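Handout, page 2. Input:
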Amino acid sequence: MAELVLEREQYLPRPIDEVFEFFAQAENLDYLTPPWLHFGIVTPRPIILQQGAVIDYRIRWRWLPVRWRSVITAWDPPHGFVDEQVRGPYKFWHHTHSFVAKEEGTLMTDRVRYRLRCAPFSNFMQKRVASDLELIFDYRRQRIADFYSAPIITPSAAKMLEGF
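Output:
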């Protein structure tokens, strides 16, 4: 199975420390995850995110209940962190959260590298999972924009605005 990549950028009109603090709260994952995934954190709270922190989740993908364990493998406040799946539905999952201070705000980037487990219908599954991840991150983008009362500015729109 080939490695796949999903990358999203979003500009937020808030200081980097404030944006990082929001994402440093594991409990905010519930707010950022679409209801159709039936997401829940299993790890007892409070959860202190830092390098080495382990977080257990449960989701339901389509009709299938899934357990997921992530470990924070890099922690660099307020510039970013990495979570990696150590148990769950993917053969490989590496999610980099990056934050860059920009004039009057923060550019947030999500970069997810992932590989599916081999499946009898792997081409079909790859398309289905990629499509669902796009939907999940679309929902996440909207929830973040709502939380920060920010317009959604896509990378292509941002490039168009650079000349003005």
